[in-house]
Each structure stands twice: as C-alpha cells, then as structure tokens.
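Lab notebook, design round three. We kept the backbone fixed and only want residue identities now. Task for the bench partner: fill in a sequence for the structure below.
Input structure tokens:
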C-alpha cells in the first residue's frame, strides 16, 4: 500500500500548489536565504580564529579551499537530483516515491562521499606538492585538508538532508539546525585550535575538526528527523537497499549539475589568474569586489532555490502554467531586489569597500570602481538564477548546465580577454566582462524559458513510477 502524507505535510503541499504564489515563494525563500547567510559563518569563524595563528596558517586554509570546493561540487549533483525528484513526487502526492528518493539519495551520498573522501585523503600530499605549497604552509595545509576529506561524508550528508527537505517544502528545520551548528562551531574552533585544559590544541587542523564534529551532529539530527517521518519524508530501512534503476537515473540527472559547479570553481581560478596578470592592486580589488558579490548573490540563490522547489512541486502536480507564473514572479522579484541593491552599492561603493580595506586609498578606489561597473547588472543575475532553477526543477539539468557554461566560458572569458588585452581598457576590460556575462545569461535563459520546452518534461510519469516497486510488492502482486 502506498504511504500517505501526514496532515502537516499535506497542508504544506496544498499551500505550495494551490495557495497564493507570492506568499508561498516568500515563506520558502526567507528561511533558505537566512540559512545561506548562516552557512557562511563556517568560513568566517575559521577565518577569525585561524587568523590569530599567523599568515602561514591563513595560507594553509586558503590553498585547501579550492580542492575541497571541487570535491564538494562533484557530489553536488546528487543534491540537485534528490531535490528535483522529491519536489516533483511531493507535488504528485506520491509519498512512497518521496521516501524512496530520500533513501536512495542518502545511500548514494554515503557511498560517493566515502570514495571521494578516501581518495582525497590518500592523494592530499600529491595535490599540495603539485600546487607548489610553501614548506612553512605544507604541514598545516595537509592536516586541514585530510581532516576535511574525512568529514566530507558529513558535509555531503547534511547537504543532502537540506536538499531533500527543501524539495518537500520544509525550510524552517534546516535553518534551525544550521543556526545551532554555526554557534557550536564558533565555540569549538578555539577549543580545538588552541586547546584548553586536557584538550590539546591542533592548530589549523583543529578548525577542520570542529567543522567535522558540528556537521556530524547535523547529519545525526537529520537522520533522526527522517526516521520519525513527521516533516514530509519518512526514511525506512528497506528504502536503503540499492535500486540500480533509480541510481542510474539520479546520476544521469545530477551529473550535469556536478559539471556546472565544478567548472564554476575552475572559473574562480581563471579569474584570479587574469587579475594577477594586472598586478597586486587589481588582484586586491578583485578579491574585495568578488567577496562583496558573493554576499550579494545570496538572496538571488535563496529565491532561485525557492523557485526550484515550487516549480518542481507544481510540475509534479501537473500545474505547468502555475509553475510558469512562479518562475516569472521569482525572476521579477529577484531582478527588482538586486537592482535596488546594485543602485545602493553604486552610490556607497567607497564606504562598502572601506569596510574590507579601511586604510588603503588605492585599493579602495580601484575596488569601488569595480563594484560600480558590475553593480547595475546585478538584477540580471537574479533573472538568470530563477530561469536556470526552472530547468533544474523540471529535470532538464543539461540545459541548466549549458546556459551557465555558455554565459561564463563562451561569453565572459572571451570578452575579458579581448577587452583587457586588445583595447585600452586593460583591467577595466576584466570588470566589464561581468555585466556582459550577466546580460548574456539573462537573455539566453529568458529565451529558453519563453520557448516553453521545459513544460513538456515531467519525471513523475507512470512509467517512471516502476522504479518504486520493491521486491515485497512484486510478491504481493503475484499472490493476488
């Protein structure tokens, strides 16, 4: 017999597929955005405490970040697949498939993260040697990197919990868990970095240990919530048995997302390389400006994730026109909100930059110039994010990947090279490549959205439901 939804889950589903769209979008986006902001607390906390160990300790964390980011990006596709499928099956009212998706996703996460973490632990010394890490940084970087690889299973596990919860429309619980773990991490960081009483200090490696403990606790809480089954997903032991058909389907759905995020990580390296070619002042300006940009796009990410959940559930419920209205409202709201932020950033750019580098007039001037060039096109980032979220939500992750890659690798980088190397703009050519890329991404994603092909793709068709049939059900059918 198919599993049934409890009253709370059914009420939330009704709000998402039948209630006012604006209210549903806001109720989803706000906790997601706050959670994204809190998530940055891990990096800020590590930077705060590790910074007290000296420059070599800070460098050890800095050289480790691109490596761990790449590994996490490789596994991110599973989160995209899990969120997409759980949203569509929840919209279709198929609780059994929602639970099946959760069980299979957690199983794949456990296996994938163990393999990637073990491989990373083994090759960490080789990677650091290839990166030509300085001798005074190597020891701390190796310790931090290896502990980070060991804890990948927890990082992946909690990321999957968040993605699945968002897929069924539950965003409040992940926010509360993130709040608790960030506060705990702030307390554990100095304890494991510097030591206290019988607890020995482990320097830079202690920061990674604190993160591993808090993420591990978050995973345990997530599993308990799934096991209790009161918030949209009920994890059963029989759902943890490998389902080859589903696993192939999830990897096919998630692989483009992993490719997209991995290449985005690589693009950060390329942009840093270009900036370094113009000297220390440009490099510093890029560092400050990109940090501000990362903060600015958090609301755009929050709205786009909310759009993805709402669109996925409405597609699952067969309400494609309502899903279209969700996407348009999300894109308009994100455009207007980020445009206002962009105007404020243009006006107050020197003051905002001065918060990061208060005593260097040259860096402030160059960074403010960078921020002013890119700020007026920030609204288009929100438009692109929302329309790409639609393609992910309907299961067309190849389209989402293609748009992101084209706007960055076929538009931004060639524009950057031509303007900076073959015109009188020089470093300004790098800055202008950002709004050019944003305009291109918004136009391409908007045209693809308007074409409407995404409305024809639905992952909950009857032939897909065969994935959920377990051995026990086959036996039962044979006895009837």
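Proposed sequence:
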């Amino acid at each position: 017999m198919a599993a049934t939804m409890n009253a709370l889950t059914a009420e939330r589903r009704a709000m998402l597929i039948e209630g006012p769209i604006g209210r549903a979008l806001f109720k989803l986006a706000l906790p997601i955005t706050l959670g994204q902001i809190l998530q940055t607390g891990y990096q800020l906390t590590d930077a705060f405490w590790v910074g007290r160990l000296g420059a070599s300790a800070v460098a050890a964390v800095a050289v480790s970040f691109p490596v761990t980011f790449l590994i996490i990006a490789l596994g991110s596709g599973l989160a995209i697949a899990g969120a997409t499928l759980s949203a569509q099956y929840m919209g279709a009212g198929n609780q059994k498939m929602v639970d099946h998706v959760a069980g299979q996703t957690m199983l794949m996460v456990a296996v994938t993260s163990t393999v990637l973490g073990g491989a990373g632990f083994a090759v960490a010394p080789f990677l650091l040697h290839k990166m030509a890490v300085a001798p005074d940084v190597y020891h701390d970087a190796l310790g931090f990197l290896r502990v980070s690889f060991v804890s990948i299973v927890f990082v992946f596990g909690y990321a999957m919990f968040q993605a699945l919860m968002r897929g069924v429309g539950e965003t409040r619980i992940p926010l509360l868990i993130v709040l608790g773990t960030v506060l705990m991490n702030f307390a554990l960081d100095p304890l494991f970095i510097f030591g206290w009483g019988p607890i020995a200090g482990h320097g830079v490696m202690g920061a990674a240990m604190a993160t591993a403990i808090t993420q591990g606790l978050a995973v345990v809480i997530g599993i308990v919530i799934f096991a209790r089954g009161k918030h949209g997903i009920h994890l059963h032991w029989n759902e943890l048995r490998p389902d080859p058909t589903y696993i192939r389907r999830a990897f096919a759905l998630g692989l483009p997302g992993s490719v997209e995020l991995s290449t985005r990580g690589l693009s950060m390296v390329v942009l840093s390389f270009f900036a370094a070619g113009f000297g220390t002042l440009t490099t510093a300006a890029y560092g400050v400006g990109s940090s501000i940009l990362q903060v600015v796009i958090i609301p755009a990410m929050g709205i786009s994730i909310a759009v993805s959940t709402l669109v996925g559930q409405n597609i699952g419920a067969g309400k494609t026109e309502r899903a279209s209205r969700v996407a348009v409202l999300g894109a308009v709201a994100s455009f207007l909100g980020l445009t206002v932020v962009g105007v404020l950033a243009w006006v107050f750019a020197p003051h905002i930059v001065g918060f990061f580098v208060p005593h260097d007039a040259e860096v402030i001037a160059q960074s403010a110039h960078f921020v002013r060039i890119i700020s007026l096109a920030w609204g288009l980032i929100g438009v692109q994010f929302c329309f790409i979220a639609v393609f992910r939500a309907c299961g067309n992750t190849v389209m989402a990947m293609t748009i992101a890659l084209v706007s960055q690798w076929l538009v931004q980088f060639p524009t950057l090279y031509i303007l900076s190397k073959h015109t009188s703009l020089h470093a300004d050519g790098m800055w202008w490549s950002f709004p050019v890329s944003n305009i291109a991404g918004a136009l391409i994603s908007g045209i693809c959205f308007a074409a409407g092909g995404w409305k024809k793709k639905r992952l909950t068709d009857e032939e897909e439901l065969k994935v959920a049939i377990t051995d026990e059900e086959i036996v039962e059918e044979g006895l009837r």
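Keep this in mind before ordering anything: Residues 16-242 form one domain.
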